[in-house]
Structures are given as structure tokens and as C-alpha cells.
Write a structure and sequence with these properties.
Length: about 375
């Protein structure tokens, strides 16, 4: 039997508006990518402040298309963090290029370290993929300076960061391409789904083409009588979103600002409650800008047994997770030589625990989790 969590790691906000939006698509009898998806793309582009938004079936698809649109392929290197979801690196591997892992900044800033990026650049380097860990935007000024100096493209894996802001700019619009995830546990959830955003007309056109088999017209255009046939100009993919998910996405997008605000409020309460505990440290103590607060990560002090801690939390009905087992330690990537050692990634990867965080959480839930953390720290100490 599945565990009945008192406080799950994440939970959704699905109301009558979501039900009605999906039902309305079903009543329309047009389910595959069409005008609802176009509306979602327009609304999303406007929201983040990008010229183009291309809806896709997942962030993994968006990352793959980003690499392809930038012309990355065999022989090329792309610098990526290792403290991320494996898709960040896999999307580079799909193209035949090599992901080169760079360390994260510190135990306070868990995103890729600009100095490590600079050290990893070779003549084969084509791009840098950053990941805004937990919805906290990376030091994009430093990344942009390095990219300019070496003529590299920047891709943002913004899967954690829809709505995050720094210097009045939203995540996904700092680099050449931004990639978002609408997977069920993300800040904006449609089950599966993603979005690629860019200001570059040519990159957008390339991504749209490759999203749908490299075909020059869409089923929707033909249904509208705008086209009778099509040509195929590239070996593209089927990475399309569908209308049910786009309809869900439109409703969730309208809720995003309020939901992120609630996440920041809960994060503040967690911090106030946990800051004084000496068994753990809290990353992002003084982060500039407005995070999307996707995750609430804590780092256990050396000497606290992590799997015991997680087990003790589970006994109290509290679900936790680990973000992330470092990608370079997985079987697929382990055999490859590292360009540079990744001591901070490995330290954080071994000590990180993610506590529950979702807009529907109550302050009592935060108190319950914090109390359990305090008790578990005592019991899991060596
Ligand atoms: C969830 C996630 C992805 C993949 O998103 P999908 O939409 O599930 O493909 C990629 N990168 C990061 C950092 C993620 O958290």
C-alpha cells in the first residue's frame, strides 16, 4: 500500500477552473496542438517577456530542441552542472555532443559556479547550460560575461524557475533559450509539458520545425484550410503539447504569481523556524531577486546520518527528497573523465534533503515539518 503522507513533498492546486478548461477542450472535439496551445504560448511569452514561446511535451524536449537549434552536435562540448536533474545532461548527449560538468558555487548557492564554467572552456565548447536550482536565479551577469568572452551560447534550464525574477527580468530570458517544465510536481503543472522561450526568430523557427517532424505545415493549418500539403526539411521529432494540457497550463499560469508568493511566504517561515538549529544549514540565505521557491533544500551537518534522517521523517508522515544525486556519479556518466573535480557538488549531493513545499501547505504544516526535523536531527546524529 502507498504511504499516506501527513505532509507530502509536493501537492497540486486543481480547482473548478482547471476542470472546466479541460472539459471545454474535450467539448470542442479538437485535442491536438491548435489554438489553445497558441494562446498558451502567447500568454507565456508575454508573462516571461520573451518574443517567442514554443510549447513542447516536456522540458527534456525543450532542452533537446535548444541544443539542436543552436547547432550543437558531435565533437562539441556543452558545460552543464552535475547537481541537476539528469535531463540537463542527457539533452546534450542526445545530440552527440559531450556534457562537461562544472561544480556549483558554494553550500549557499547550489547553482553552477561561473569560475568553474570559465575553467571548463576549451576550443570545443559551444554552450553553457545553467540550471536555476530551486527557482533561485544563477549569477547570470557573470555567466553572460564568460559567454561573451568565449563566444558561447547560454541555455537556461528554468524547470524550477517559472516566474523567478532578478533585476526586473524573468528566468528564461537571460540566455539565448530558456526551457521550462510543466511536470506534475513543478510550480506550473500540466502533468507532462514544457516550454522553450527565446527572443531569436531563427532559433524559434528551428525549434518549431523540429518540434513537429521537420514538417513545414501543421495538422491544425491543414484543418483550417490554410495548407493542403507539406514538405519535410529536417529529421524532426514529435515533441508537441496537446490542447488539454495547454488549457490546464493557461489556468495554472494565471495562478502562478500568487502560488509563487505563497511559496516565498512558506519559505520565510521555514527559515525563521530552522535557522537556529545547528544540525543543518539553509542555502540561499541572502539571495538577490525574487525566487520561484520551487524547493526548500536543507544541508545536513556532517555526522547526521541522511538515510536515518529521511526514515525518521517518513515515520512522522513527512515526505522528503534529494535534489540531486549528482549526474556525474550515475553509471551512464561515471566512466567519463571529469574535466575538473566537483567537491562542492559531491558534498552537497551527499548531505542535501528537500523538505515539503507547495502553495496549499499551511503554517501548521511548516510547524509540523520543522518539529519533525528538530527531533530527527537529534535522533540521526552520530
Ligand atoms: C523536471 C526537470 C527537468 C525535466 O522536465 P520534464 O518536463 O519532466 O522533462 C529538467 N531539468 C530540471 C532541473 C528539472 O527539475
Amino acid at each position: 500500500m502507498a504511504v499516506q503522507w501527513r505532509v507530502p513533498l509536493a501537492d497540486l492546486e486543481i480547482g473548478p477552473e482547471e476542470m472546466e478548461a479541460v472539459a471545454s477542450v474535450l467539448r470542442s472535439r479538437w485535442l491536438s496542438m491548435g489554438q489553445v496551445t497558441q494562446r498558451f504560448e502567447q500568454a507565456f511569452a508575454e508573462y516571461v517577456g520573451a518574443r517567442h514561446a514554443v510549447a513542447v511535451s516536456s522540458a527534456t524536449a525543450a532542452l533537446h530542441l535548444a541544443n539542436l537549434a543552436l547547432g550543437i552536435g558531435p565533437g562539441d562540448e556543452v558545460i552543464v552542472p552535475s547537481l541537476t536533474f539528469v535531463a540537463t545532461a542527457n539533452a546534450v548527449t542526445y545530440t552527440g555532443a559531450t556534457p562537461v560538468f562544472a561544480d556549483i558555487t558554494s553550500e549557499d548557492d547550489l547553482s553552477i559556479d561561473p569560475r568553474a564554467v570559465e575553467a571548463a572552456v576549451t576550443p570545443a565548447t559551444k554552450a553553457i547550460v545553467v540550471m536555476h536550482y530551486g527557482g533561485y536565479i544563477c549569477d547570470m551577469e557573470a555567466i553572460a560575461r564568460i559567454a561573451r568572452r568565449h563566444g558561447l551560447a547560454v541555455v537556461e534550464d528554468a524547470a524550477h524557475a517559472p516566474g523567478a525574477e532578478a533585476g526586473g527580468r524573468k528566468a528564461g530570458t537571460f540566455g539565448a533559450i530558456g526551457c521550462f517544465s510543466f511536470f506534475a510536481n513543478k510550480n506550473l503543472a500540466t502533468g507532462e509539458g514544457g516550454m522553450l522561450v527565446t527572443d531569436d526568430d531563427r532559433l524559434a523557427e528551428r525549434a518549431r520545425l523540429l518540434r513537429s517532424h521537420g514538417m513545414t505545415t501543421l495538422t491544425w493549418d491543414r484543418h483550417q484550410g490554410h495548407a493542403h500539403s507539406y514538405d519535410v526539411v529536417a529529421a524532426g521529432y514529435n515533441y508537441r503539447l496537446d490542447e488539454m494540457r495547454a488549457a490546464l497550463g493557461l489556468v495554472q499560469l494565471a495562478r502562478l504569481e500568487a502560488a509563487n508568493e505563497r511559496r516565498r511566504l512558506l519559505t520565510g517561515h521555514y527559515r525563521a523556524r530552522l535557522a537556529a538549529l545547528d544540525g543543518l544549514s539553509l542555502p540561499y540565505r541572502a539571495h538577490p531577486g525574487k525566487p520561484a521557491a520551487h524547493l526548500f533544500p536543507v544541508l545536513l551537518r556532517q555526522g547526521i546520518h541522511r538515510s536515518r534522517f529521511i526514515e525518521l521523517m517518513k515515520e512522522r508522515g513527512i515526505q522528503t527528497s534529494i535534489h540531486y544525486p549528482p549526474v556525474h556519479q550515475f553509471t551512464l556518466y561515471r566512466a567519463r573523465a571529469l574535466r575538473q573535480p566537483l567537491p562542492v557538488t559531491e558534498r552537497v549531493g551527499a548531505r542535501e534533503v528537500t523538505l515539503p513545499l507547495y502553495p496549499r501547505m499551511t503554517l501548521e504544516d511548516v510547524e509540523l515539518v520543522a518539529g519533525a526535523v528538530e527531533a530527527a536531527l537529534g535522533a540521526a546524529a552520530a
